[in-house]
Amino acid sequence: MSLRPDLSIISKWIKPGSRVLDLGCGDGALLAHLQADRNVTGYGLEIDNNNVRQCISAGVNVIQTDLDAGLSDFYAESFDYVIMTQTLQAVNYPDKLLEEMLRVGREGIVTFPNFAHWKNRLQVAASGRMPMSHTLPNPWYSTPNIHLCTVNDFETLCRDRGIRILQRTMVNYAHRRSMGDHLLPNLLGRIALYRFARS
Amino acid sequence: MPEVIPEDSVGLVTPSSIDFQGPLALDCGSTLTDYSITYETYGELNAARSNAVLICHALSSHHHAAGYHSMDDRKPGWWDTCIGPGKAIDTNRFHVVCSNNIGGCHGSTGPASINPATGQPYGKTFPDIVVKDWVRSQALLADALNIDRWAAVVGGSLGGMQALQWSIDYPERVAHAAVIAAAPRLSAQNIAFNEVARHAILSDPDFHDGNYYQHNVVPERGLRLARMLGHITYLSDDSMHSKFGRELQAGSPTTGYDMEFQVESYLRYQGKKFVSEFDANTYVLMTKTLDHFDPAAAYNNDLSAALAQASAHFLVIAFTSDWRFSPARSREIVRALLDNNKEVVYGHVEANEGHDAFLMKIPYYMDIFSAYMNRVASEVEPA
Q1: Nearest CA in chain A to B332
Q2: What is the C-alpha separation between A58 and A51, in angstroms, rounded?
Q3: Of residues B238, B230, B228, the one with CA closest to residue B264
Q4: Contacts with A, B 340-369, CB within 8 Å
Q5: Which among A19, A56, A63 has CB closest to B372?
Q6: Cβ–Cβ below 8 Å for B343 and A65
């Protein structure tokens, strides 16, 4: 089973033997990989029935729950990493959830589609309409992505909330890294990957 | 009655019984000198004796969980939706054991059994039973069946609580525990419902202080009321609405105190049927057992501390419309397991059927239950 490239990058950030909480863990691919390859233990939180079923089949400890209900079931600092891939933009209170991530975990890892990518900017400028793309496939009225943000937005929020960014990687939508992404991340990066902790 | 036995049924089954030469020490301090446990098994035990699954039954249930006793049976065992070839608890892969709890009225020693000390039925002198006693007696049954460790202990409702207790009392003997539509202990509202049910039985003039056997009567009215009340709590408002709505029994309204609505007819039917298959003393005893279930009590009311010694992997499932043991109650169990870094899967099933949902063939429920049990089976099968 080959891992999605962004998940593959994240899995290299995780120290072997760590305890991980994966918010919106999908089909459990990342946790299953971390369990098998990096001796990681932990849980995935997921709301979608089909994903939960796949997690169970993959041997992942999945808790079926709504992330918007918060992480009150978890003690402070009970995980080494709290991960949230491609979900930050779809929750009701992304800022509160970031704080929660750093309450229950020592480090947080998020990935999200960078709304300031040049193609999105071009679509808005040229057509005057909300952009749609591979990473943002839904029209504005039915998108689950209710809190889209840019690389600059995210880093500003982190600064305001006393969150220290430890690592940042930008990938394109084939989830590959490129030189341009590194130079002008907010313009050229399609998907942002961050690792962060309390300042 | 089945014209032919369905292919995914365990088929015709016969209960077995083991007479134990006691004494069985009970938590209340007394002992049962001689006692028997009635049980059924489905599916083959493998050579390594590692594929055994214990099913724990709910309040008003028994050992007949799957299949048919005869071709005249109107219905199969109570959990036939989940137990059988190719079903969630796949009898092609598991050896399934289901026993009638001590204090029951379907073969295992209970209040209607003869007390060897007096030669009379125990009646209300049958000792108080707690869930730990059931677990202890089932551990002795496992010994008798030469099963060291259960691949899984599985139960819904009170049976789920029993599975939880197993994981605490015999961690080394439980690989997986499936705790379905359960709660870590009853709420005051739950106890209140049980109390009304008990009161109906105890206040029936035919109860005779529990000695109705000697009077050749049954406290029918009380038992019927208890069951009717129970049934209301097993269903949801939605499921009652979709089953009966406000449909009239006779098609048109009647006058006076006569039964009018179909839901009344349903409850009366359930009450009447129950009288012919259940013992009133057992109902009183087992509702008490349910009320007293509280594994956290011995740990300063800290459920996390109670579960610290468990080593099983857990499957916890709750149903959205279950207001008897709501999903929030299952989440209490999940939280205590998370506190302990235990292996746990929690499934939250959308269902309109109320508490009874755990007995029903709800597609998503069957999906996750099967997916979990499939992993349990693959762990005990030779690679």
Answers
A1: A73
A2: 10
A3: B228
A4: 341, 343-348, 364, 367-368
A5: A56
A6: no
Q: What percent of chain B has pLDDT over 90?
A: 93
Q: What is the 3-state secondary structure (H, E, C) of B109-168?
A: CCCCCEECCCCEECHHHCCCCCHHHHHHHHHHHHHHCCCCCECEEEEECHHHHHHHHHHH
Q: What domains, with CATH codes, occur in chain A?
A: 5-198 (3.40.50.150)
Cα atoms in the Cβ-side hemisphere of radius 13 Å centred on B103:
31
Whether B371 shows a pLDDT value over 80: the answer reads: yes
Chain A, residues 20-39, CB within 8 A of chain B, namely: none
Q: What integer pLDDT is reported at residue A24 of this predicted model? A: 94
CB proximity B212 to A under 8 Å: no
What is the per-residue pLDDT for A6? Answer: 85
**A104 Cβ neighbours under 8 A, 6+ residues apart:** A21, A71, A74, A75, A76, A77, A78, A79, A82
Asked if A48 has any chain B CB less than 8 Å from its own CB, the reply is no
ipTM of the modeled complex: 0.94
- Establish whether B157 is a catalytic residue: yes
Residues A88-125: pLDDT tens digits? 999 999 999 999 999 999 999 999 999 999 999 999 99
| A75 close to B (CB below 8 A) | yes
- On the question of pLDDT at B252 being above 80, the answer is no
The region, left, alpha or beta by phi > 0 then psi within -120 to 50, assigned to residue B107 is left
Mutant choice from A25, A64, A68, A79 vs B, greatest count of B C-beta within 10 A: A64
| Those residues with Cβ within 8 angstroms of residue A84's Cβ, 6 or more apart along the chain or in another chain | A22, A23, A24, A97, A101, A108, A109, A110, A111
pTM value is: 0.95
pLDDT tens figures, B116-164 = 999 999 999 999 999 999 999 999 999 999 999 999 999 999 999 999 9
Structure-block tokens of residue B101:
């709890």
Residues of chain B neighbouring A59 (CB-CB closer than 8 A): 375
d(CA B92, CA B44) in angstroms, rounded, equals: 8
